[in-house]
Amino acid sequence: MTPSAAAMSTFRSIQAPAAVVMVRPHRFTPNPETATDNAFQNPAAVGEARAIAAAAHREVTRAAEQLQDAGVRVHLFEDRGEQDTPDSVFPNNWFSTHPGGRVAIYAMHSPSRRRERRQDVIEMLKAEYRVQDVIDYSGLEHDQLFLEGTGAMVLDHTAGVAYTARSNRADPVLLERFSTHFNFEPIVFDTADMAGRPIYHTNVLMCVATEFALLGTRSLTDPSRAREVVARLQEWGHEVIDLSPEQIGEFAGNAIELSGRAGRVLALSQRACDSLTARQKARIKRSARLLPLAVPTIELAGGSVRCMLAGIHLSPRRAAAGLGKAT
């Protein structure tokens, strides 16, 4: 049974998109070029390249099906490996979409990741959704300025805040430029993993949903700054669910809230879901259904479900349902 429009308005929010872009890889492998600053990454075993690529292909296929079953529209693009793009399964880093018909294209730190940008994805957005403006920051790579999209930033669309962990993938100059163009206030902080290394992307330790936020407060190195971030989230009605450093290591922070057919869902990996306590799950379920996706092979590359999903915060040109496909 399809819920009424009134019921859906209760479920959906500016923070929880009802559609996503995914990329299904045919030659997936952990990227040695990004391993230097991504401590969550595990190298591929020698001689297992084909098996790893095949497993990643299956995981993305199944994840797209599960999202579709939940009522999320999925635009599934193929990466057939014509170029060396080992991280193509993580499209949220090279573009983002915003209410009002705006799209941003980002400057990427690693040369191999710059090849992930695809004009066919942008053209699909223009054809299927109301796009008024595309701002392309990729040319700033020549100036060594990088900002890796909604990996480097966790955006609170309701409050207009861009939470950002300092790293070489989030240049402060480019962050200020983005914030000016898209009307966000940047809130920047330092982080460290359990080994004391800076965390490479903000979306590994933080997720902002409609009524709650997941945050690894102990991963912020300055306790006073952590309290400020918590206070800001609470100011805008988000109940903060604190994640331990161990849960961050299990990708518990790498989640995204989406609008499905029967309400909001929190998409995260099975590994991440298994790391949550019963109390944390109960709090999430008051606002969104947990939707665990098994992506253990993809997680070898140091990213998880949030990284795999580029949310579409644009108005559709026409009513659409089902699994959107593009090749």
UniProtKB/TrEMBL annotation:
**Gene that produces this protein:** ctlX
Write down the species. Ottowia pentelensis
Per UniProt, the keywords (alphabetical) are: Hydrolase
Note the PANTHER family from the entry.
AMIDINOTRANSFERASE
**InterPro entries, per this entry?**
Amdntrnsf_FN0238
- Tell me one GO molecular function of this protein: hydrolase activity
What highest taxon heads this organism's lineage?
Answer: Bacteria
Q: Which SUPFAM superfamilies would you find in this protein's record?
A: Pentein
Name of the protein: Citrulline utilization hydrolase CtlX
